[in-house]
Amino acid sequence: MCADFRVFHVRSSAGLYGAEYVILGLVPELAEAGIGCTVLCLDNQYMATQPLADKARTLRIPCERIPCRGRFDFATVAALRRVIAENPRALLHVHDYKSALNAWLARGRSRVPIVATSHGQFSSTASLQLYHRLELSLMRRFERVCIVSDAMRPKLLDAGVRAERLVLIENGIDTRRFRPEVAPVPRSALGIADGAVVFGAAMRLTEQKNPLGLVDAFARVAAELPHAVLVVAGDGPLRAETAARAEAHGVAGRVRLLGACDDLERIYATMDVFVLPSLYEGLPLALLEAMAAARQVVATRVGEVPAVLAGTEAILVAPADIDALAGAMLRAAMHSPPAASLRERAVKRYSVARMAKVYEEVYRDVWRCRELAAA
Q1: What pLDDT does residue 122 have?
Q2: Sequential DSSP letters for 138-205
Q3: 159-192 pLDDT, tens per residue?
Q4: How does DSSP classify residue 234?
Q5: How is the beta sheet containing 36-42 ordered, strand by strand?
Q6: Beta bridge pairs of residue 116
Q7: Would the pTM count as exceeding 0.70?
Q8: How far is Cα 163 from Cα 147, in angstroms, rounded to an integer?
Q9: Which domains does the chain carry?
């Protein structure tokens, strides 16, 4: 059934990370369900290129760049108002605090509905804490607020978001792309010997994701396993410090920092053990991707991770416990069981098709309520 409205996904992006891939996976699935979407990419003034817009165009996903020269720019509000004026049957879906603020200002007195997704509010600076408090305040005014982890619910309720407007929609990934049968990146291409035990991670190199703690743990593992190698896909502000930490531990020759990768499915296939060392999380896509690829998993007990992995062969440890993380990595390498149950869970519960179905229901319900209110 084709929808008589169009969804505009508004995102202020600093690169291609979890939330961006959620959007890029969601839009094609919604199109198959008859819901047309356009991605509105707020320009990042600090980046020479705009990766989300570029990737959307590569995938032939409708998108438009929106000018944005700071946290608040009247040109951004004006551009969003133009989109609303040109699309009287628009529904705005915002994915971060900057998008939420600009969409709310652009809506003004119009009746365009707004849906928000909280991908996880992790504030590392005083200014970000301020903006996230503003976002929580704005969410009280939106028609629906979607959360990726049930652990987020109390904070939003405390902020005044009405319980009936909160919807849990767990992240989903393309389980056809991420699967065990994918041809791995040849180990020789990464300078890895055939008999090596390969630990791997896919993350943004930030404090939250804890790449320094991962290197610390790997150094202890490397002392026990002479042929162990660590592969890290992803980039970020801690890249130089991560490389320096590996050098300080004397394991730089056994650590591969790959930077941003477009072929993550092949990187997962190269790993023996996937490691998630995060200090805090919502529902990380990298974990779901590794599960779909049937990799053995070692992860910290953060956010939704324990619920995702409950009853599987994955090994969980406390966040920031380097000794426990190293020990779990060693156990996983020495006694790595088949990870079929992880793949099965990812397919059954965390597919992008399932995620899109729930979002479709949310959009249609919001639009029905809007039409009833107008009648």
Answers
A1: 57
A2: HHTTSSEEEESSGGGHHHHHHTT--GGGEEE----B-TTTS-TTSPPPPGGGGT--TT-EEEEEE---
A3: 999 999 999 999 999 999 999 999 999 999 999 9
A4: B
A5: 63-66, 36-42, 6-12, 90-94, 114-118, 144-147, 166-168
A6: 94, 145
A7: yes
A8: 12
A9: 6-172+351-374 (3.40.50.2000), 187-349 (3.40.50.2000)
